Amino acid sequence: MSGGDFERIIDALSKADRVAVLTGAGVSAESGIPTFRGAGGLWEGHAIEDVATPEAFARDPSLVWDFYSARRQAALASSPNAAHRALAEMETRFLEFHLATQNVDGLHGRAGSRRVAELHGSLERVRCAGCGSARDWTDDLAFGRPRCGCGGLFRPAIVWFGEALPAEVWREAERAARTADVYLVVGTSGEVYPAAGLAIAAAREGAAVFEINPEATSLARFFSGALREPAARALPRLFTVLASRLPETDARSSDKE
Ligand code: BJW
Ligand code: ZN
Catalytic site residue 120? Predict the structure, then answer.
């Protein structure tokens, strides 16, 4: 990591009114949740592309349920880390702050982020593959092949390959990316679209885009700088310096009254 980039990020954030963030699996790595690509990314020999498609579910719903049940248990057993907490703190420091995540683990919400755009759905809900009705994913849902009252199979309310992202959530994330002064890309390989396109759109519309990731990704060429360190180290470090320079927005607005 270059000290210069740290200062440049702080400088850009200190001047920014509109900040938007895109997170991926790397932000939860230090909570013990494995990332998708790279070491440890396979589940019982299956790549994510083998279990996260509607075709996989049609072929073998029990396999897909087993995969997501294990993921849900891991998410419930884990806790938010210092990166999730720092992002929750940042929410109160800018006139506009938008957090979009590709993660389905719910850890941003549990860390205290009030508004989280879950681009790829959530492990907290299921929906019927037949009639589309949705409900919370509770422990009483039988493992294997749980069914809806209409006779259809329930499935995790997750966005699989080939499926559209939730329209309203996507629209808002795109708007935030296009209007951001600073865009932070945290812990994502940037391999999966359309989410990765948000960072490119932000850069094209003039945002200063910074990557927080120990590894450079294929998107790095669009960015103004990077912190090459784990998110749970980089984000609290950024927030500590930032907090000394920016009052809370609630405080800002009460100053004006
Ligand atoms: C750390 C760290 C630490 C580690 N700190 N960092 C060809 C070209 C372009 C696109 C396509 C194409 N062929 C098909 C497509 C489309 C497809 C796609 O993008 N495929 C690519 C793989 C090629 N996309 C889709 O299908 C999407 N839908 C779509 O396009 O719909 C079109 C449509 C429109 C209208 C009607 C109908 C259809 C949907 C994509 C859904 C993705 N879903 C998944 C699985 C479900 C969620 C789940 O089960 O959890 O979402 S895939 C998986 O990848 C998951 C993730 O959210 C997503 C992104 O992964 P992420 O988060 O980036 O993780 P990793 O593992 O890749 O990277 C981790 C990073 O962290 C690494 O960089 C590490 O270095 C870093 N790191 N430790 C900071 N401590
Ligand atoms: Zn149904």
Answer: yes
